[in-house]
Amino acid sequence: MNAFFEALGARFAAAASRQGVEVPAPTLDPAVAAELLELARVAAHTQERRFAPLASYLAGVFASRLEAAGGPSDPASVAGLIREVREELEREAAS
User: CB neighbours (10 Å) of residue 87?
Assistant: First the structure.
């Protein structure tokens, strides 16, 4: 996505390696990143500002579990599912 996130992914992989676990550096798809930012925005404005990063983390855990369960794991599908949940939150907040 950009140099910061590429370096951050490499740092996560290096941290795992120091624990004796080899994992590929995580990457961030631009479409997924955009949806995560929108989810964080909605969480910050409809709940508490400090919930924004945790909402993004929870979306990442969801994406990982979705893939492990055999669900869609391509970036477009993941972005679409995050968007679906974000839009539900926005509708509820508007009510």
Answer: 13
**Residue 62, Cα to own-chain centre: how many angstroms?**
8
Tokens of 69: 């369960």
Q: Quote the tokens at residue 8.
A: 């951050």
The helix/strand/coil state of 13 is helix
* pLDDT tens, position by position, 30-73: 999 999 999 999 999 999 999 999 999 999 999 999 999 999 99
Q: Which amino acid is at 28?
A: L
Q: Where are the domains of the chain?
A: 28-94
Q: Are residues 30 and 10 in contact, defined by beta-carbon separation less than 8 angstroms? A: no
One-letter amino acid for residue 25 of the chain: A
Length reported for the chain: 95
Whole-model pTM? Answer: 0.88
Q: Which of 74, 86, 83 is nearest to 29 (CA)?
A: 74
CA 40 to chain centre: 10
